Amino acid sequence: MAILLAxxxxxxxxxxxxxxxxxxxxxxxxxxxxxxxxxCHTIPDGALFAGGLPMQSPxxxxxxxxxxxxxxxxIGKWSADDFYRTMHQGRFPDGGLIYPAMPFPxxxxxxxxxxxxxxAYLRSVPPVRQPNRPNDLRFPxxxxxxxxxxxxxxxxxxxxxxxxxxSAEWNRGAYLVExxxxxxxxxxxxxxxxxxxxxxxxQGGLIPMQNWYAPSLTSNKEAxxxxxxxxEITDLLRTGVSHRGAVYGPMAxxxxxxxxxxxxxxxxxxxxxxxxxSEGSPPATEVSSIPAPESSLLLNFGETAYQTHCASCHAPDxxxxxxxxxxxxxxxxxxxxxxxNPIRMVLxxxxxxxxxxxxxxYGMPPFAQLLSDDEVAAxxxxxxxxxGNRGAPVSARExxxxxxxxxx
Length: 408
What we know:
Blueprint: H1 19-34, H2 37-41, E1 54-57, E2 60-63, H3 80-89, H4 104-107, H5 112-124, E3 136-137, H6 147-154, H7 168-180, E4 205-207, E5 212-214, H8 230-239, H9 249-257, H10 264-277, H11 292-309, H12 311-314, H13 332-335, H14 340-348, H15 373-385, H16 396-402
Antiparallel strand pairs: 1-2, 2-3, 4-5
Helix pairs in contact: 1-5, 3-5, 7-10, 8-10, 11-15, 15-16
């Protein structure tokens, strides 16, 4: 991955760079990883931060920009003030509006000192002459002036203000999660305008065009961590696996590119804050949308499929063999309101990220070629309802729809 190319960069700086500059650049590199800048601004096997990554949206395709210090095609002519204004206000140096595919509603919370450090780091990476690719958005979304309306509804400018009633550690975690981590960008419901009211932050929702569900972080029924220990949360964030479960899909990329590189204190602080979001949240009971006789048939059919294909790893009683094979019994990710993620895992399989703490992750094989839509629906229904789980049944139609979903 391109992020690995940045390793050791600070150590290789010329002696002419003063120690205080080296320290600022090193801090900027760390913060750029905390913000997962590489995920959008580097294409696979491409030059670091040269941009050009296509990002699909309901409104068309956007392409990430070149943020290397090239003076013509990158940010080489930007000042530190220009960079801060971009992060803080969501505007280019000339005042032009930036599409909210860049998470400036979160980055506005980042302190000036940290923005300056990231700027210093980006100025230190090799410049790449690569012109930015024009966006391919449908009318009228290709009219940037429409962003003014979006900003009125969904953007509130301002750096993070610590909550004096909370601990310094909690506030550090909130700063990272709400700011550089921009976790709310995925873990909040997105409406037809492509935005999410602040009142619904972290309540979960489908990730547009990716066909993955980013679960609620405020509800223990979904991905809320109120009932997890701090150790279990830090394990999941840093390594991608814990005794409670594992990360897959887009979250696995976040762990691989970003979270595994954070220091112990910051991961612990994030865990403290994330746990607080859903402490005291009661479990909810799903209401089935499938008639009872069909549900009963699915459960019986699903139990047979589970014992045949799944029990050898996840155990007949669903307790799994954590952390290699996560438990399904009592696993909130199995019981969420949306069944998209477990259906996709059965169809496509997947791996947790390979991290320093889990360098050889155990994966799940795909079953799309082996199981019919009815069988997929049955086995997912079974694991969502067995062993005391409270997930609602799923239909063969849902399984069929996700067979053609992109694998990224």
